[in-house]
Write a structure and sequence with these properties.
Order of helices and strands: EHEHEEEEHHEE
Strand order of the largest sheet: 1-2-6-5-4-3
Radius of gyration: 19 Å
Structural class: alpha+beta
Number of helices: 4
Strand content: over 45%
Shape: elongated
Number of domains: 1
Mean pLDDT: 76
Low-confidence stretches: 14-19, 55-72
Helix content: 25-40%
């Protein structure tokens, strides 16, 4: 089985350096497993969506204080993950990767925890799918105290 899950941080543009937006690349090769992961984690997702009113806050200094200027943008994404009333996470296909775009501060969820859970779930489903294709079935699956998942397979 090939290892096809990884995370890369993308260098932020000058405009993004002034916002809470962050772009991250996830190496995901199976869209159906990705959508299942999102659902299994308790989120709703849609494909080929234009996220309206995705606000990017830019900050500029004036003579007295730092003011916020809101710029409204519509962003086309391959997958939109509905997180809460504050906003969505957008996934944009970039070759073998999905670029994750989100304003984590506005979403009020922990980026590292969300991405770690998504990647762990994706990797587990990918391993199970590949094992099944090769006539292996799960004998035991156990979440370890450190958060890793131990899976034992038997050949059938």
């Amino acid at each position: 089985m090939s290892h096809d899950t990884e995370i890369r941080i993308v260098k932020r543009t000058e405009e993004e350096k002034l916002t809470h937006y962050k772009r991250t690349l996830l190496k995901i090769t199976d869209i159906s497993l990705l959508k299942k992961c999102i659902k299994d984690l308790g989120y709703y997702c849609q494909e080929n969506v234009k996220l309206k009113d995705m606000a990017i806050r830019t900050y500029y200094e004036n003579e007295r204080a730092v003011d916020a200027k809101k710029i409204e943008r519509d962003i086309s994404v391959d997958i939109a993950i509905e997180i809460n009333k504050n906003g969505d996470i957008g996934l944009i296909k970039k070759g073998n990767y999905y670029e994750v775009m989100a304003d984590w501060a506005v979403l009020e969820i922990n980026e590292k925890d969300f991405l770690s859970n998504l990647i762990q779930k994706y990797a587990l489903l990918k391993v199970k799918k590949e094992a099944s294709k090769n006539r292996w079935m799960i004998e035991t699956e156990e979440r370890m105290p450190d958060g890793t998942i131990k899976v034992e397979f038997v050949k059938y």
